[in-house]
Q: What sequence folds into this?
């Protein structure tokens, strides 16, 4: 029929820390990860571009815009403390976002952060730390800048609501359900601000943030219609680099990795996705 429904397994927070960088290295080399989004203002950035990226040069690389954590590159006064560290919460950024001065500072910080990675590799997509670019006023800025920098894709967060029956409803799930409603609303608004930039159709990883398993992923995928759509599946893998020889030795796996790292290294995961009629891809191949 020619109909292909694409699954895009992507890891956020590349460049955040050595622990995350090494997990992404293994996730691409021996696991299911096809893409990663790099964060350019955190402590692990230099190690990511100097040591890890040369070993995985074919990974599809996106830009993970960050105005929530770490030290800024431009000291935007409206969202940093006097030392230049980001200090605004998500609700505070929503409240500030309509300010023209705020928008100008966001644009300047975006340019500084993205130009730091463009020296190393072409960027295929844009997203953000803690989904701050989903805030409509910020999304409009990011979408325009993505077009300017010739970046073809920008993340949206349409996750069809679902419940995994083997998981009890908890406070964590209720918080994530609120995030799901908020981000779905933002996605609906933001579809009108895509300035000749494409986006994914669906997203998996908000309702079960911090509780990602194969079960939660496949339950979410069941809600998606097979109609040439693109679904991002978001991961945050990490490795315990304090464990002796962890970069080279996986004999004691329980001390080396988190649950999401286990998923992306699961030899059956790719096969199970393909059996569910999903084609694994990355933004560069779309």
A:
């Amino acid at each position: 029929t020619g109909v292909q429904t694409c699954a895009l397994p992507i890891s956020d927070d590349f460049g955040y820390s050595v622990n995350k960088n090494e997990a992404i290295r293994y996730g691409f080399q021996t696991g299911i990860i096809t893409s990663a989004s790099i964060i350019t203002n955190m402590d692990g950035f230099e190690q990511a571009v100097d040591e890890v990226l040369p070993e995985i040069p074919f990974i599809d690389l996106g830009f993970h815009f960050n105005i929530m954590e770490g030290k800024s590159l431009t000291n935007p006064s409206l969202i940093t403390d006097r030392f230049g560290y980001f200090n605004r919460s998500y609700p505070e950024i929503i409240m500030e976002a309509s300010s023209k001065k705020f928008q100008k500072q966001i644009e300047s910080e975006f340019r500084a952060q993205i130009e730091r990675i463009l020296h190393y590799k072409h960027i295929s997509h844009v997203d953000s730390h803690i989904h701050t670019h989903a805030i409509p006023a910020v999304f409009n800025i990011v979408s325009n800048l993505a077009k300017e920098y010739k970046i073809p894709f920008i993340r949206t967060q349409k996750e069809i609501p679902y419940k995994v029956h083997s998981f009890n409803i908890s406070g964590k799930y209720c918080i994530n359900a609120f995030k799901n409603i908020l981000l779905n609303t933002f996605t609906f608004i933001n579809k009108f601000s895509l300035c000749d930039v494409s986006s994914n159709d669906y997203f998996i990883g908000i309702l079960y943030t911090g509780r990602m398993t194969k079960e939660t992923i496949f339950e979410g995928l069941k809600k998606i219609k097979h109609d040439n759509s693109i679904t991002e599946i978001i991961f945050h893998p990490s490795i315990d680099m304090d464990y002796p020889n962890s970069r080279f030795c996986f004999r004691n796996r329980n001390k080396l990795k988190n649950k999401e790292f286990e998923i992306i290294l699961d030899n059956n995961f790719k096969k199970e996705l393909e059996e569910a009629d999903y084609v694994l891809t990355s933004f560069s191949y779309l």
Summary: DSSP finds nine helices and nine strands in the chain. The longest strand covers residues 5-14.
